[in-house]
Amino acid sequence: MTDTTAGPAAPPVAAAPAPVPRRARVRRGLTPWLFLLAPLALLITFTYAPVANMVAYSFTDWDGVSPELHYTGGHNYTELFTRPELFEVFFVSGYYLAASAVQIAGALCFATVLSFDVRFRNFFKGVLFFPYLINGVAIGFVFLYFFQDGGTLDSVLALFGRHSSHAWLGTPVSANTSLAGVSVWRYLGLNFVLFLGAIQSIPGELYEAAELDGANRWQQFRHIIAPGIKPVLTLTVILSVSGSLSAFEIPYIMTGGATGTETFVIQTVKLAFQFNKTGLASAAAVVLLLIILAVTWAQRRLVPDDRVDLV
Amino acid sequence: MNRRTFLAATTAALLLTGCTGTGGVSKGQDAEAPDDPAKVSGTITVLTQRTDLVQDGTMKKYAAAFNRTYPKVKVEFQALTDYESEVKIRMNTENYGDVLMIPGVIKKSDYPKFFASLGTRAERAEKYRFTDFTTVDGKVYGQSPIGVMPGFVYNKKVWERTGITEWPTTSAQFLADLKAIKDRTGATPYYTNFAAQWPLTSWTYVNGSVHCDTAATTKLADGDPWARGADLRVGDTLLYDIVRRGLAEKDPTTTNWEASKARLAKGEIATQWLGTWAIIQFQDAAEKAGVDPGDIGFMPFPAQTDGTFCGVVGPDYNQAVNIHSRHKAAARAWIDWFTDQSGYDKDNLAISPLKDAPLPAVLTPYRDAGVKLIELDDTAGARVKLIDDESEVGIYKPGYRQNLVDLARGARKGSLDGFLDDLGGKWTAARKNAGS
User: Fold this and answer.
1) Which of A12, A44, A305, B362 is 20 to 30 A distant from A110 in Cα terms?
2) At residue B288, what are phi and psi to the nearest 5 degrees?
3) Across-strand partners of B47?
4) What is the pLDDT of residues A136-181, one digit of tens each?
5) Please, are residues A259 and B255 in contact by the beta-carbon 8 Å criterion?
6) B251 and A167 in contact by Cβ < 8 A?
7) Closest CA–CA distance from residue A67 to any residue of chain B (Å)
8) CA torsion sign, B45 to B51 to B54 to B58?
9) Which of A46, A60, A66, A178 would you mutate first to test chain B, the one with the most B CBs within 10 A?
């Protein structure tokens, strides 16, 4: 995951390779591409071709099914940017952004604790990662029961003597907070595993040395773990921000965007599949892609990806 | 990823998109009814939204009965869970079954590109209802196997226990009755089924029944559906008032459609605005819950014109023949047989698409009360859909009614008048763009 693993244990590199005949050189140059053939074919077929198609549709007035489509130039983009109400839904992303801060902090905390020798640590790892393995649709339905009037959450609260009859998905603030909470529950495991992997790739001698020098757990975290996992941390932040901007599954299944929980992607889906404005929706999707690319670029500029060098 | 590979891949992908357009589509073919049943042959695929009937073998029974008349035709079924969106995507190819239900997304003017005609309107209208809904240039492209009518599914016992024996005739009386139900029986007077979303779209089908107006659809296309006294405004105001006065379920955001059927049958819920198609489902739920299916009642919208109620009879999904089908005669034979002889309408307690067929038994109270059944003129139906898409109001979509319910229970700021006027404004603005 980081460069640190190739530290002192790396074998010495063979010096001065013998001259290689031409044909072998060609074959050697070709080999990696042969291996790449399958993934590249998949990548192009299922990612870049659809994206290119989407860009093409964004310049048309296609309704998604009619055999006729007309080129309309930048009309869809003009319409998007002259309707500010289409961008108001980005406020909802704020809830998910806040939630991802909680999520990253939580994941980091758990990853650090479980990287030390803790009893039942494999069991806890499993527990934390498990939600990420469940299908998003199933999670949506499970949490609908959870938030129901008199549902699981209310029953659990009642155990602690709090008899609430709060409609959890009833108001925009409460609904968005609840949905963001579900999303934390679901994705915390993924962040946790990424962090754990990074932390475990830090050579153990460093901790030993630090302990000999009398560093406590917090100092170890502050000076060894935090800098050691910085690239993964940056990556996670980028993923979280783009994930918050494009939140979809959980709110779509649980509320369908009702009660002020509509996100930009839900709005795009509605444009495309409810109002049959596939052209306009494609333009919206392109704009979202550009926004995410811009945010990522800005983040990379603010936090440059330094080479990690702990030793 | 390396920047150069990214660029290379994108260019390659851009080159691939040359093949986005669709090829030439044949147009204006007919699926003629076969003369001799014994000669028709072939395997046809029927797409249906009734996953339940395919799973429990009911559809197979229909196919077996069909084979008694048409022995050489093999009928296969494909049940689609999310019918609308799955068929929509398949219709970009030629492979969308031999017989299918026309999805709502297809523009009426595009029918001749996708479906083979079943005959002229003049000849079909003599025998069948709803021919208007699929007629393009005098030719009919689909036929609904059942007729449906919107109305309130209600629990008779709960209403009777409250002491109400007559159907309410005005919105005010309806609200008063719901209030009485709440006070005297403790049942939830009305259930919105907010979370399931689509039940809310039934409220659009009040159109026509409020003023007993067969031209109601044309009025949507030519005017403001939320003008004072207009059908949709009356319906939406009633829904708003029900929720506003606390006569609906406490937390609409976590409702459960399947559970609501049994709860209504058991009398925990008194009323839901749905349609005749729902009656059989509620009766089944009643049987499963061990209560009397006879308790499920059906009543018209609380409005009268000249002292009578009005019920708007409309088509369900229309069955059509794929224009690319290689067995059009067999496909046509299936549609005719399914509409005329299958008994699908009776099995579903629905209104028959045949003009001279009697009303189903569940609607006996309708006959006794002298409810006038009307059929809306659908000539402007395609334009209404265009305006609806253009304005992004979504009268056939759940979104705006969810917002209405949110408004009524205070989860959204604003007044009812402001909300409805805003919808009307969007609608009338879009009307100008939608080429009318």
Assistant:
1) A305
2) -65, -35
3) B78
4) 899 998 998 899 888 889 888 989 888 777 788 889 999 999 999 9
5) no
6) yes
7) 6
8) negative
9) A66
Cβ within 8 Å, pair B13-A52: yes
Do residue A65 and residue B399 have CB atoms under 8 angstroms apart? no
Nearest by CB: A144 against B12, B110, B254: B254
CB B302 within 8 Å of CB B171: yes
Per CB-CB distance under 8 Å, the chain A contacts of B88 are 64-65, 273
Q: How far apart are CA A67 and CA B327, in angstroms?
A: 23
Q: How many CB pairs under 8 A join A and B?
A: 114
**Residue A53 in this model has a pLDDT that exceeds 90:** yes
Residues A201 and A203: their CA atoms lie apart, in Å, by 6
- Dist CA A182 CA A142 (whole Å): 10
| Nearest C-alpha neighbor of A149 from the set A161, A158, A159, A139 | A158
Coil, helix or strand for B290? coil
Q: Which residues are CB-neighbours of B123 under 8 A, at least 6 positions away?
A: none
Pairing of strands B147-148, B314-315: antiparallel
Q: Is this structure's pTM higher than 0.90?
A: no
Alpha-carbon dihedral of residues B373, B236, A140, B262, nearest 10 degrees?
Answer: -50
Q: Does B25 contact A67 at a Cβ distance shorter than 8 Å?
A: yes
The Cα–Cα gap between B259 and B196 comes to 11
- Cα torsion for A163, A169, A172, A176, to the nearest 10°? 100
- As beta bridge partners, residue B135 has B140
DSSP annotation of B133: G
Say which range, A164-173, A280-289, B96-105, has the weakest mean pLDDT.
A164-173
* B233: Cα within 13 Å, side-chain hemisphere: 19
With beta carbons less than 8 A apart as the criterion, state whether B211 and B305 touch: yes
How far is the C-alpha of A47 from the C-alpha of A54, rounded, in Å?
Answer: 11
b/e map B206-236, b = 16+ CB within 10 Å: bbbbbbbbeebbbbbbeebbbeeebbbbbbb
Pair of tokens at residue B240: 């708003």
Q: How far apart are CA B254 and CA A15, in angstroms?
A: 69
Do residues B69 and B337 touch, judged by C-beta distance below 8 A? yes
Residues in chain A: 311
Compute the nearest-CA separation of A149 from chain B (Å).
Answer: 6
Alpha-helical segments (H) within B98-170: 111-114, 121-125, 156-161
Q: Which of residues 215-274 of B touch A (CB under 8 A)?
A: 250-251, 253-254, 256
